[in-house]
Specification:
The protein contains 8 helices and 18 strands. By secondary structure, it is an alpha/beta fold.
Length: about 425
């Protein structure tokens, strides 16, 4: 059956080519007739797939779902012509050949979303120089595969040249043994794809530690959302000033212990070029910030016009002590005393981290009590000293008075004896 459909389809295309010389009315009739035939041939759903209109990402679209079908069957020559979303996930494809799977532009003319995630793909072959077979593709999902991106120290291409692509998902897409190569070759992968209209780029869970080229994302001038969460980044060693349209930078769950002043300055500079109501959003949540290293970062969070997502949840750590909320953290010269109080038995382990105001009131109260006690002690000491001096003075006066009386009595007695 599949062979017959292919044969009839190619006969129809051949008939169009052979009849190009006919007069216009006959040519229009022939094109109309051929179109109806092509539609009839190409309306059938691929084996083991589910086809039809359904709600996809908030809109009604014609979806062909080939999840867990095992392998590519008969290629996708005869996808329904209305296909807007093709989901081909949960299969076992070590090597994926673009040209063998998608060869006819008539078939993929309406396709806007292609999901090839979770297929254990290691290598992508036969990549066309231009992506004429999917002229309207806007979203490509290659997440959760095992892509090899380097061979004999040479980067491998994995993407055709997508002029229309707006969203690219590469979440956990690469082989673990090639994570180091990803740090080095990501620039070439993105640059070779010519993704000039890309808006969203997902690179989460790829064990990225750094970027060889600071301008790694500068080949994406229209990028608005960059997702780098769940990697191993220790600093922001990539340029953002070239991303004039960037609206969201997701850096959650990396290995950032501090953020350099030059990087926060770059974010401020990028924000300064924003139009009204088009702010830059940055998310640093769940990074292991070190309290002694982030005083300038804290001040930036409290003063910047950049929207710092989850800033009330940002924590820092110091010497195994209880984590502190960065925006509530005291300046460095008071930090030690704060931790000392919080680690004391008087501070409940189950108590939540308190605000600066309540902590300040406690410290002030303790200082007030100490001052009062010292003042009372000083007053008591003063009174005691005065009493001692008074006693000494009275004693001397008494001794003098007693001595004078004795002398007078002696003098009187001596006169009487005479």
């Amino acid at each position: 059956m599949a062979f017959i459909r292919k044969f009839n389809f190619f006969l129809l295309l051949l008939s169009i080519t052979l009849n190009l010389s006919v007069e216009k009315p006959e040519y229009e009739w022939l094109m109309s007739y051929t179109k109806r035939k092509v539609l009839n041939i190409a309306q059938s759903c691929p084996d083991d797939c589910i086809c039809g209109y359904q709600l996809y990402e908030g809109a009604q679209k014609y979806v062909v779902n080939c999840t867990n079908t095992g392998s590519i069957r008969n290629n996708f020559y005869f996808l329904p012509v209305d296909t807007q979303v093709l989901i081909f996930t949960g299969n076992n494809i070590a090597e994926f050949d673009w040209l063998n799977v998608f060869q006819l532009s008539l078939i993929c003319i309406s396709l806007t979303v292609l999901d090839l995630s979770n297929n254990q793909i290691r290598k992508i072959n036969k990549i066309p120089s231009t992506y004429q077979y999917m002229p309207n593709l806007q979203q490509l999902i290659l997440s959760h595969n095992n892509l090899i991106i380097s061979h004999d120290d040479h980067p491998l291409s994995i993407l055709p040249k997508f002029d229309t692509l707006r969203s690219l998902h590469l979440i956990n897409a690469f082989d673990d043994n090639y994570s180091a190569h990803l740090n080095e070759d990501l620039h070439d992968i993105l640059n070779n794809g010519q993704l000039h209209n890309l808006v969203n780029l997902h690179l989460e869970q790829n064990k990225i530690t750094h970027f060889r080229d600071p301008k790694v994302f500068c080949a994406l001038p229209n990028l608005r959302e960059l997702y780098l969460a769940d990697n191993l980044l220790t600093e922001l060693n990539f340029e953002v000033h070239c991303l004039s349209n960037l609206q969201l930078l997701d850096l959650q769950r990396n290995k950032l212990q501090f953020v350099k002043t030059e990087h926060t300055a770059a974010l401020n500079e990028l924000q300064s070029r924003r139009h009204f109501g088009n702010n830059l959003n940055v998310d640093f949540n769940l990074n292991p910030f070190v309290c002694d290293e982030i005083e300038s970062f804290r001040n930036w969070i409290l003063s910047t016009k950049v929207i710092v997502n989850n800033k009330s949840n940002l924590l820092c750590y110091r010497n195994g002590a209880k984590p502190l909320r960065i925006i509530e953290m005291e300046t460095r010269h008071r930090l030690y005393y704060t931790e000392l109080i919080r680690s004391s038995p008087m501070y409940s382990k189950d108590q939540n981290i308190e605000t600066n105001e309540s902590l300040g009131l406690k410290v002030n109260f303790i200082l007030f009590v100490i001052i009062v006690i010292l003042d009372l002690v000083g007053s008591l000491v003063t009174v005691m000293m005065k009493c001692i001096f008074l006693f000494s003075y009275l004693k001397q006066r008494w001794i003098r008075s007693v001595g004078k009386s004795v002398n007078d009595e002696v003098e009187v007695c001596s006169k009487l004896n005479m």
